[in-house]
Specification:
The protein is of the alpha/beta class. Helix 1 runs parallel beside helix 7. 29% of the residues are buried. 47% of the residues lie in helices and 11% in strands.
Length: 245
């Protein structure tokens, strides 16, 4: 399997943000976390609380004193920044970055995404260690929480190779209705429509019946849906007669 990128967090000030980043990583299949000189206590109880089921990522996290030490094992490092005007490197969207990371990992390289601290982001020395940068498109307000930024890029990584259909129907244990079940529904419904004098004028009954059956068949009902509709018919008829008393 293609190895996902490591997430490197530089000089993070709040344990909560480290925990939120770990949770986002777990959501989308990333597992390697590197911390550069965290400014909060480490290990951190608040990080564990926010990690919510991804504490194993925090326990395995590698802590480094410098950015150079943190990025040393990786062949491709992409840095994140919201200030792309002063950058002299290639600037990727998250989608393009995910493709580049996956291509490098597919060739056997180790990859990483570098994130700066909450207040000032990455400094120039840290940026100089990256091969290229990533900027997340935003509207007028560009400030993103660290955990949000990690989540967006982790999602793009997973999406770059995800085979989930763009549109699908939720899988259920119900099976398609048999022809016998559909015929039973036709008879039940048509009998009650006859009793309610729905088919009028009588000369058009056959055409109206065909239209009703065509609508039902087009719906591709399951066995459970047939039973539900028949139960609805019974309830409507019962209440109709109850109201006449």
């Amino acid at each position: 399997m293609t190895a996902p990128p490591a997430i490197i967090l530089s000089h993070t000030q709040m344990g909560e943000n480290i925990g939120a980043a770990a949770r986002a990583m777990k959501n989308f299949g990333l597992s390697e976390l590197v911390l550069i000189a965290p400014r909060c206590d480490w290990p951190n109880d608040r990080a564990q609380m926010l990690a919510s089921g991804s504490g194993d990522i925090l326990e395995r996290a590698r802590v480094c004193a410098t950015a150079a030490e943190a990025v040393a094992p990786y062949e491709l490092v992409l840095a994140t920044t919201a200030r792309d005007r002063d950058v002299l490197k290639e600037i990727h969207t998250p989608e393009a970055a995910a493709r580049r990371l996956r291509a490098a990992a597919g060739a056997g390289g180790r990859t990483a995404i570098l994130f700066g601290g909450e207040r000032a982001g990455l400094d120039n020395d840290e940026m100089s260690l990256a091969d290229a940068v990533i900027t997340i498109p935003t509207a007028e307000f560009w400030s993103l929480n660290l955990g949000q930024a990690v989540l967006l890029l982790a999602y793009e990584w997973l999406r770059s190779a995800d085979a989930t259909p763009a549109v699908r129907t939720r899988a259920t244990i119900a099976r398609p209705a048999t022809r016998a079940e559909l015929v039973g529904l036709f008879g039940h419904l048509e009998a009650e429509l006859d009793a309610a004098q729905y088919f009028f004028p009588p000369a058009k009954r056959e055409a109206m019946v065909r239209n009703v059956r065509a609508m039902i068949l087009k719906s591709r009902l399951t066995d459970q849906q047939v039973r539900t509709i028949r139960g609805m018919i019974v309830a409507l008829v019962k209440n109709k007669y109850r109201g006449k008393k």
